[in-house]
Write a structure and sequence with these properties.
763 residues; alpha/beta; 6-stranded mixed beta sheet; 6-stranded mixed beta barrel; 31 helices
């Protein structure tokens, strides 16, 4: 195996490096001119929404309203490369399984619907009507509804997702595992317990009024780069930005705005974080408790000195429950224990607390470094606790800001992609469409995987995504997926999920977001919801990659007609012909979308009201709820003295499972992904050197041996006792049982492992 090249990257995030990478991405996809023109239509009121992250658009977007990774996402789907039937004829599935994920995606856009032919071990062309008919026959005649799993990726539009959940429920199941289950489900579960809603409470303009921004477990420069504009502006007006992350991410250090000609010409940059606190992996809960303990102590001291309150006593008394129990727990938690578990000193955390209480308005931001833990839901509630202490919910310039990943993952949930539908939602579906939807809760991702492993699931229909690569416990799950009777992949490009297939398998290629979607009534727009609950229209302008493609919405409607038959109560043909009709139906089922079609025709769209933003608490008590986090451990205790806490993360040239290259510029890794990051002191403790090849073995008590070998050791600034590796390469190390019991979010960010040296770097 060739060694990965390690080369220090000393430039700021963004800047000329981002422009160079953008140009390179356009050239690699053979669209240097057409791609540049397409970028000018991205995130514009009359254009299409970025297929990457869910960061919101400003009210008045500039002409270059895109970031480096958004440009890569656009280039990835607008590529001139094609994956044709001739390609599939030349390669067996067994051969393609030996290809790397990057090589699979670089083949290009899939041009025809395909079905798996076992005799030749190849995908072969199939007519759309034939594919729909066979899928419908299998679902209708060969299995019970609860034996099918309907999976949704965050890239699916509101319209396609709404039809998808109608299909599943008309078929007879609430099995709706979705990508949110693996990422931000802890937010969707934890926030309602605290404030009554499962979404954030801020708008983009709140960042312009915040005095302090606290960022936990989020790498904005890679995962939501357009956020850097808000952070840069905040830093330049001297707002305090405190970042908590085991990795000192480049964008949290300094940023050069590619849209700013002065910074670009002068080669200057803006420092972003006032302070970066390198918590240990799994140390965020202890750090949050330390900050709150310091806040409580400052409030106690102010009261004793007859100086009033440091905390927002009026808000706490008028809007919350549970403060006394929280304060008692914090007072009884020792600083020594907090320091040991967080990896930060008491002075560090008291400093953070002083900055927090000095801010009139503070925004608390978090990502998957918070949610993907054994106690991820409780982590989210800790952040909510911190906000409530100072009344930082429900006023301008303050609030809770979960940074959800993919561009419409939040919208999918809003329009009904959930395995736990409320009775009210099901009643409205019944009243709107005249069929009785199933009432029993269905499967999320962890339950769906369990059903596959136990042989209870028989079909898997995926509306986008690369499920087989994204899942934990990769080997056992992929083995189970191969025993399914049917797998259906609705995708734009080739990926691992189509190669890990059932006995019968179909690839149904769909239009990309940047492409014209022309249906019976003319060109269509779809809608998406961003991380801050803004809903807006998106309309592609590019010519479709193939005349044989169908839209996501038309594909879902085609499967539904074939499965449910001509007597279905849902007007699938009408919906496929005119997406306004789908939006009218969404409005009937979800009244929050009142005036849907009219409101998306206003540039910028509209905001879905958040009750918590108005300080209306939709909790059982009618008040915001503090919660006690027992102890300090986010994850299970680990007694092995040689053990490490592994955290998985994405490279800068990656979005979810999609790889734009094999490099990670900001971390100085070039030409490969099989690396592990360790501090130099931890390398000495483990007896390894830079360049050594090592294996990681999971520490688990379930009797299953999990190991991934041939990682190359890379020295990096990390807390001792911690190790980092890329996702999804490290996913085989994550036990399926290692998940949050409340949200079922897998613990991708904290896996106990041992390290074994395989060979020295000189070998």
């Amino acid at each position: 195996m060739a060694k990965v090249k390690i080369r220090a990257y000393t430039n700021p995030a963004g800047g000329w490096g981002a422009l160079e990478a953008t140009g390179k991405a356009l050239v690699e996809q053979d669209i240097p001119v057409r791609g540049a023109a397409t970028l000018l239509r991205m995130n514009q009121p009359t254009g299409f929404d970025c297929p990457g992250c869910a960061w919101p658009d400003p009210k008045k977007p500039g002409p270059f309203e895109f970031c480096e990774n958004g440009a890569k996402a656009m280039a990835w789907e607008a590529t001139a490369k094609r994956c044709t039937p001739d390609f599939f004829a030349a390669h067996t599935v067994s051969e393609l399984e030996t290809w790397g994920d990057y090589d699979l995606e670089m083949v290009g856009r899939i041009t025809h619907p395909m079905r798996y032919e076992a005799a030749s071990d190849r995908y072969v062309p199939v007519a759309w009507d034939e594919a729909f008919a066979r899928i419908g026959t299998i679902l209708r005649e060969d299995m019970e509804p609860d034996q099918a799993e309907f999976y949704t990726s965050g890239r699916a539009s509101n319209e396609a997702a709404f039809l998808f959940q109608l299909l599943g429920r008309a078929y007879g199941t609430n099995n709706f595992p979705d990508c949110s289950n693996m990422c931000h489900e802890a937010t969707s579960v934890g926030l309602p317990q605290s404030i009554g809603v499962g979404k954030g409470t801020v708008l983009l303009e709140d960042f312009d009024r915040a005095d302090a921004i606290l960022i936990f477990g989020q790498n904005p420069g890679t995962n939501s780069p357009r956020m850097m504009t808000s952070l840069r502006d905040a830093a330049r007006r001297n707002a305090a930005i405190l970042s908590f992350n085991p990795f000192p991410e480049r964008a949290l250090e300094r940023f050069q705005a590619p849209q700013n000609p002065v910074e670009m010409a002068s080669l200057t940059s803006t420092p972003i974080s006032s302070r970066i606190f390198q918590v240990r992996v799994g140390g965020d809960a202890a750090a949050l408790k330390g900050i709150m303990k310091a806040c409580i102590a400052m409030d106690d001291a102010a009261i004793a000195a007859d100086e009033g309150h440091v905390l927002d006593a009026d808000f706490i008394a008028g809007h919350t429950n549970g403060f006394d129990a929280l304060a008692a727990d914090l007072r009884s938690t020792s600083w020594a224990a907090i320091e040991r578990r967080s990896g930060l000193t008491r002075a560090d955390l008291e400093s953070a607390a002083r900055t927090y209480v000095a801010a009139e308005n503070a925004i608390l931001v978090w990502g998957m470094g918070i949610t993907q833990h054994r106690r991820g839901t409780e982590n989210v509630r800790l952040i909510s606790n911190l906000a409530l202490l100072r009344g930082n919910v429900g006023r301008p310039g303050a609030g809770l800001c979960p940074v959800r990943g993919h561009s419409n993952v939040q919208g999918n949930r809003t329009v009904g992609i959930t395995e736990k539908p409320t009775p009210e939602m099901l009643d409205r579906i019944r009243d709107a469409f005249g069929f009785e939807p199933p009432r029993a809760h269905g499967h999320d991702v962890v339950a769906a995987l369990g059903a596959m492993v136990q042989g209870q699931a028989r079909a898997f229909i995926a509306l986008g995504g690369n499920f087989a690569a994204a899942v934990p416990d990769t080997e056992s799950v992929q083995q189970a997926m191969r025993t399914l009777d049917l797998t259906v992949a609705i995708n734009t490009k080739l990926n691992r999920g189509q190669l890990v297939h059932g006995r019968e398998a179909y690839i149904l290629p769909c239009l990309a977001r940047s492409e014209v979607d022309h249906q019976a009534t003319g060109p269509q727009s779809i809608t998406v919801e961003d991380s801050m609950s803004m809903v807006h229209a998106s309309a592609g302008r590019n010519r479709p990659a193939s005349e044989h493609l169908m839209s996501e919405t038309a594909i879902v409607a085609g499967i539904a007609r074939a499965t449910l038959g001509p007597d279905s109560a849902v007007p699938w043909e009408d919906f496929a012909a005119d997406y306004d009709r789908i939006r009218d139906a969404i409005e009937r089922v979800f009244p929050i979308f009142q005036g849907f079609n009219a409101r998306i025709r206003v540039p910028g769209g509209f905001h879905l009201t958040s009750l918590a933003r108005e300080r209306i608490w939709a909790t059982p008590s009618g008040r915001a709820e503090f919660a006690v986090f027992e102890g300090l451990e986010e994850d299970a205790l680990m007694s092995d003295p040689g053990a490490l806490w592994l955290t998985t993360m994405r490279s800068h040239d990656q979005y979810n499972t999609t790889l734009y290259s094999l490099s990670d510029r900001y971390r100085g890794v070039f030409g490969g992904r099989m690396v592990v990051f360790l501090s130099e002191s931890e390398m000495a403790r483990q007896g390894v050197r830079a360049g050594d090849r090592v294996a990681l073995d999971t520490i688990a008590d379930d009797g299953v041996a999990r190991s991934v070998a041939s990682f190359q050791v890379v020295p990096y600034r990390l807390p001792d006792g911690c190790v980092g590796a890329y996702y999804p390469e490290a996913n085989p190390l994550v036990p399926l049982g290692l998940h949050d019991p409340q949200s079922h979010t897998p613990s991708f960010k904290a896996i106990p492992v041992r390290m074994r040296r395989l060979e020295t770097g000189a070998a």
